[in-house]
Write a structure and sequence with these properties.
Blueprint (H helix, E strand, L loop, with lengths): L5 H24 L3 E4 L9 E5 L2 E8 L5 H9 L8 E8 L3 E6 L4 E5 L2
Length: 110
């Protein structure tokens, strides 16, 4: 969080953490095993696995523009054929999701 004052960092982290937990609960309700990977400071906040399917998910509080979204989804790739996704939090409504194949969908809150 370069350029964000220390006081501002404390406000950003809890908000992002709460949104990651909401997404994690949604995925677990769908039968996925989910690991939060945000502590690694890597590009993906959540890694979800179910029946051989692997999903790398970045949780965002804002909707990135098409060029930024494409760049985020393009890489880095995982070691396997995985779904790379961005979930954008929609206040009290759930998430708007995008994947590397250009698909877009809405994920309702539980």
């Amino acid at each position: 969080l370069h350029g964000v004052p220390e006081k501002g960092r404390m406000a950003i982290y809890p908000k992002g953490y709460r949104r990651e937990l909401i997404a994690k609960r949604i995925l677990e309700a769908q039968g996925y095993q989910v690991v939060r990977s945000s502590g690694s400071h890597g590009p993906w906040d959540l890694v979800a696995y179910k029946d051989g399917e692997i999903r790398f998910i970045q949780i965002k509080s804002y909707r990135p523009g098409p060029a930024s979204r494409e760049k985020m989804l393009r890489g880095p790739r995982g070691p396997l054929d995985v779904s790379r996704e961005i979930w954008v939090y929609r206040k009290r409504a759930g998430f708007e999701a995008y994947n590397h194949e250009g698909r877009q969908w809405i994920i309702e809150r539980l």
